[in-house]
Design brief:
It comes from Hucho hucho (huchen). Keywords: Calcium, Cell adhesion, Cell membrane, Cleavage on pair of basic residues, Glycoprotein, Membrane, Metal-binding, Repeat, Signal, Transmembrane, Transmembrane helix. The protein is of the alpha+beta class and about 725 residues long. It has five domains: about 90 residues, Cadherins (Immunoglobulin-like); about 100 residues, Cadherins (Immunoglobulin-like), CATH 2.60.40; about 110 residues, Cadherins (Immunoglobulin-like, Sandwich); about 100 residues, Cadherins (Immunoglobulin-like, Sandwich); about 110 residues, Cadherins (Immunoglobulin-like). The protein is about 15% helix and about 35% strand. Strands 1, 3, 6, 7 and 8 form a five-stranded mixed sheet that branches. Strands 34, 36, 39, 40 and 41 form a five-stranded mixed sheet that branches. The protein is elongated.
Length: about 725
């Protein structure tokens, strides 16, 4: 499309130029006829040419054509071009007069060129006509996007601004020709920042579009504004910028003290002007909107103390206005107001922009340890006392003449559970945790009284707190019973006596009431009889019990106590059907062939059997040793030890040498007395040897018996413990 428009524009420019030449020629002829001056007749005059910028073709851009009426086409005339860009930007064919642009033209760099043209005679090298000036104007195309030259922008507006409040006015600059088409017609829009802000499309004014923006909630906003030329139409070029908007503070938040009551203390010897303490009413606003003014508006210390604002205008400084005297007055109460100094009348409905607090100032004196009014305290407190209940106020005084102010506390080691709290000034004891008599029925705490002026002076007193019972626990069976009924049991037979326990401790003692649970009221198998002595009997209502029919029954028992409010519970008694002997002792409650007695557990039986087994082993060992002792000592040729046990000191020779010993006696020393002839000196050693053997056997036997007995006793002890 651009390639077609360019030739048409050039043709139009050529026609306009030729028409202008003809008009100039007619005026020249009229001037000649009028006789104003005489000169050579000029056949052409140029005013201006038009050419589009940013031509990107490969060939030089044709601008226009110079032609003189004196040019006969024989090549005798030479055209010369001078002025802006002649030879560098524009060239002319000196024979034909055609003008071309040899460089890319940019209207934003140079919008027009002033050129001069003249026709010369080639042979005489003299001008044929005077010089003529003409202008080459560069026509604009949309080749530049709008730009925000000063971006990014910073803007500040007050918080809580109303809708429509102007934030900032933006202007985007478009380098294109504003007089030609819509290339420089800019339209503004917002890309980021809704719904808080908006921008006017034509003026670029950014405005608030959401009311109630609170700096204390969000202080900074970043929005993006777009400027688009061509009137914002499709195909237009666009540029963007960022606007950082900060909400400035306004006084829309009232001040407030952190505490309703401040505790301060000061020595009575403090000088006038001394600082007692400082307080602050905090304000969510900042700067001058948070500045405060403090004043004492009430209290018995208005004439004794003063308050002023510090250099930051944020804190109130309490100072002494008059000398203090502990004996005349030990404490003061100040009612102090803190108010903003800079009010915004637009937000008075968010007020009041002031707040009041109480300051309690205690005057301290030097004294000795305080003394309590009682040597010890005994207090009774119901376990249902609510948290925060004041149950006793203890008091202590300074025995000195100065009568210093006392501060109370509880010694931490005596109230590890932190059940109690004491007011530091009044000595009022109160509960801070729920009390439970069943958990802890007595609390023995120590209350400390400390002098404010000298913390090393501390008095103490014992406080015994008895927790009174409230009926808040239901009675329960002493344990989860498991009873049994014999298969041979008759109707009305007692099978179990049940008892209950209750952790409560009523003044009149425990009174329990038993009955079957409502769902078991018509139980056909068992009934319950309340003995009116805190026990109840479980009785059978029929006979003919059989394990094969049903081996286990469950009987729910309802128990209630006699105190108000009445507490109840339901427990289940498991009743098993068992085989019993004629005396009613249980033999078996299941399919096992043998059932242990109820008084003997399986572990105990195993221990007893193990003991019996060990005893049998030890008895067999002793019998084996005893039979071994009765055998002859020498019963094998390999064991012949006569050379070791028979010795004598007589010299050899004589008859007695042949009768020195009997072979039979050597094989069996116990029968040595049967030998008719023998050496008398041999008998003591043989008898001594056999005696030592017997002693060793007896000692071994005694050791075995002792070990067996001790082991059996140990096993029996274990079995008994099981």
């Amino acid at each position: 499309m651009g390639d077609l428009l360019l030739p048409l524009a050039l043709a139009l420019l050529t026609l306009l130029s030729e028409a202008q030449v003809r008009m100039d020629k007619a005026r020249s002829e009229e001037e000649s006829e009028a006789g104003l001056f005489r000169r050579v007749k000029r056949g052409w005059v140029w005013n201006q040419f038009f050419v589009l910028e940013e031509y990107t073709g490969l060939e030089p851009l044709y601008i226009g054509k110079l032609h003189s009426d004196m040019d006969l086409g024989d090549g005798s005339i030479k055209y010369i071009l001078s002025g802006d860009g002649a030879g560098t930007t524009f060239t002319i064919d000196d024979s034909t007069g055609d003008i071309h642009a040899i460089k890319r033209l940019d209207r934003e760099v140079k919008a027009q060129y002033l050129l001069r043209a003249q026709a010369w005679n080639r042979q005489t090298d003299r001008p044929l006509e005077p010089e003529s000036e003409f202008i080459v104007k560069i026509q604009d195309i949309n080749d530049n996007e709008p730009k925000f030259l000063d971006g990014p922008y910073q803007a500040t507006i007050p918080e809580m601004s109303t809708i429509g409040t102007e934030v900032i006015r933006l202007t985007a600059t478009d380098a294109d020709d504003p007089t030609y088409g819509n290339s420089a017609r800019v339209v503004y829009s917002i890309l980021q920042g809704q719904p808080y802000f908006s921008v006017e499309p034509k003026t670029g004014v950014v405005r608030v579009s959401l009311a109630g923006m609170d700096r204390e909630v969000r202080e900074n906003y970043s929005i993006i504004i777009q400027a688009k030329d061509m009137g914002g139409q499709l195909g237009g070029l666009a540029g963007t910028t960022v606007v950082n908007i900060t909400l400035s503070d306004v006084n829309d938040n009232p001040p407030m003290f952190d505490q309703k009551l401040y505790q301060m203390s000061v020595l009575e010897s403090a000088l006038v002007g001394s600082v007692v303490g400082r307080i602050r009413a905090k304000d969510r606003d900042i700067g001058i909107n948070a500045e405060m003014r403090y004043s004492i508006i009430d209290g018995d210390g208005r004439d004794t103390f003063d308050i002023s604002t510090d250099h930051t205008n944020l804190f109130g400084i309490i100072t002494i206005k008059k000398p203090l005297n502990f004996e005349s007055k030990a404490s003061y109460t100040l009612k102090i107001e803190g108010a903003n100094t800079h009010l915004d009348h637009r937000f008075l409905d968010k007020g009041p922009f002031s707040h009041v607090t109480i300051v309690h100032v205690s005057v301290e004196d030097i004294d000795e340890p305080p003394e309590f009014s009682s040597a010890a305290y005994y207090i009774e407190v119901s376990e249902e006392a609510e948290i925060g209940t004041v149950f006793k106020t203890v008091s202590a005084r300074d025995p000195d003449a100065s009568n210093n102010s006392i501060r109370y506390s509880i010694e931490m080691t005596t109230d590890l559970g932190k059940y109690f709290y004491i007011d530091i000034t009044s000595g009022a004891l109160m509960t801070v945790l729920a009390l439970d008599r069943e958990e802890l029925s007595w609390h023995n705490i120590t209350v400390l009284a400390m002098e404010m002026n000298n913390p090393s002076m501390i008095g103490n007193v014992s406080v015994a707190v008895k927790i009174l019972d409230v009926n808040d626990n239901p009675p329960l069976l002493t344990q989860y019973f498991e009873a049994f009924v014999c298969e041979s049991a008759k109707a009305g037979q007692l099978i179990q006596t049940v008892t209950a326990i209750d952790p409560d401790d009523p003044l009149g003692g425990q009174h329990f009431y038993y009955s079957l649970a409502p769902e078991a009221a018509n139980n056909p198998n068992f009934t319950l009889r309340d003995n009116q002595d805190n026990t109840a009997w479980i009785l059978t209502r029929r006979g003919g019990w059989s394990q094969q029919d049903q081996s286990v029954y469950y009987l729910p028992i309802f128990i209630s106590d006699g105190e108000l409010p009445v507490q109840t519970s339901t427990s289940t008694l498991t009743i098993r059907v068992c085989s019993c002997d004629v005396e009613g002792n249980v033999m078996s409650c299941n399919a096992e062939a043998y059932h242990l007695p109820a008084s003997l557990s399986r572990g105990a039986l195993i221990a007893i059997l193990a003991c019996i087994f060990v005893m049998l082993v030890m008895i067999l060992l002793m019998l084996s040793l005893r039979s071994h002792r009765k055998k002859p000592y020498l019963h094998d040729e390999e064991d012949n030890v006569h050379e070791n046990i028979v010795r004598y000191d007589d010299e050899g020779g004589g008859e007695e040498d042949t009768e020195a010993f009997d072979i039979a006696a050597m094989w069996n020393p116990h029968e040595a007395h049967l030998v008719g002839k023998q050496r008398q000196d041999m008998l003591p050693e043989i008898e001594s040897l056999s005696q030592r053997e017997r002693n060793r056997e007896n000692e071994f036997e005694r050791c075995a018996r002792r070990i067996t007995a001790e082991f059996a006793i140990a096993l029996l002890s274990i079995a008994y413990s099981l």
